[in-house]
Write the structure tokens for this entry.
Amino acid sequence: MTSDAATRLGRIVPPIVVIGVVIALWWLVVVRTDSAIFPTPWQVVTGALELARDGTLWEHIGASLFRVGVGFGLAFLLAVPLGLWMGWVGGAYRTLNPIFQMLRPISPIAWIPIAILWFGVGDVSPIFLIFISSVFPMIVQTTSGVHTIERRYLRAAANFGVSRAVLFRRVVIPAVLPEIIVGMRIGIGVAWLVVVAAEMIALRSGLGYLIMDSRNAGNRYDLVIAAMIIIGVIGLLLDGITRLLERIRTVRWRYVR
């Protein structure tokens, strides 16, 4: 076995073992307690397959991903340019940063009544909540990235007579990209959390709604647990997809071990 293969196995095997142990303990506890409500792992699997066969599961997953995609995309389009501007222009930072620092600690869940009041019950409300939850981490992280650029890079570019436009494009943006990716990871994680909470309250589709509907429709806790696991798996996949951006040649320098 090559060293690369051994390294890959060393990364994959431990989490698989831990997951296997958790599933075994879960099964053992349910069997030993003879619970009539809490499902075994196999009942969760069969419940998920039941929804997958009739297409209900894919509809709920698609609805949640659509809302996250639109809300997070809008947040990204606003947050990154705004964060770069605030980091580059001192006046913009001094003017806007206090407002964002006041809004940022407010839980996105607290915006749910406002979202329903403004946009009603529909897709626009959760999209707004996702936008609110993910825009601030990306603004803060992008602004911080500009502020932490080593000044020697800027001075070296200035010594060569580089214009501000070229300096911004060739030095500032590449230097800030790793911080933007960190902000995206934080934002997408919070967005996925918020959409599930919003769907539990104000919608009739999505994985959050599936959890509440399964609980209310005959105590189908097998479907509740299945939806929870699917939420976790999709969250892991979204984070992994975002981390793929770290392999871009322009930002790879930041992650060299």
